[in-house]
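Give me a protein, keeping tokens residue-aligned:
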Amino acid sequence: MATTQKSFAKGSSAPGPVPKGQIRLFSMRFCPFAQRTRLVLHAKGIKHETVNINLKDKPDWFLEKNPLGLVPTLETVNGQVIYESPITCEYLDEVYAEKKLLPSDPFEKAQQKMLLEHFSKVTPYFYKIPMGKKNGEDVSGLEAELKEKLSKLNEVLVNKKTKFFGGDSVTMIDYMMWPWFERMEMMELKHCLEGRAELKKWVELMLQDPTVKANMFSTDTYKAFYKTYMDGKPDYDYGL
């Protein structure tokens, strides 16, 4: 896998054609949404090239490919462009049929999508709470809401009686939710898992997954990047 690592900013020249037999991922090293796609690419063993983008100063050539300027964005050898993290992940699972991450059963697949829809209401708290703290606001109400939502996820595992959200092995839904749990310690939200035993166990199991291990940063690295982000001067190349 070729990775440029350093992020491309405005004024940079566009990368050449997508290498034959590969797919290109436009990413940002610390973006949880892009991490979803990186996890899927890795778990499925898909040959790919990663091009990191400076999200504060985006290159014009990137905006031509995806006018929304969002990562993750995929580009195929034929120049087809796919974006939005759940869509990129489902696309990869369909096109690269070996080692399917989504269940083939329509109801089970629908269950994963419903759970993802529920989880999309959880992710805003990972921004609202740290922002509120930074501004000196009382975030206890927000933390109570987050805990309630995490309790619901805990219940899903209790009712399913499985180790992971889609069964006894890691599937798509686990990778779609993981990036935010990986950042919990950095955001000082780990205490919100207390009393949610099944969910805590799930976190421990996910930390042992080879794909998760290969795509994670240390809490210290996240903290250092996040500080630059909160100060309004994100250092996308932090640690390189």
In short: The mean pLDDT is 96. The longest strand covers residues 23-27. DSSP finds ten helices and five strands in the chain. The first helix runs from residue 32 to 43.
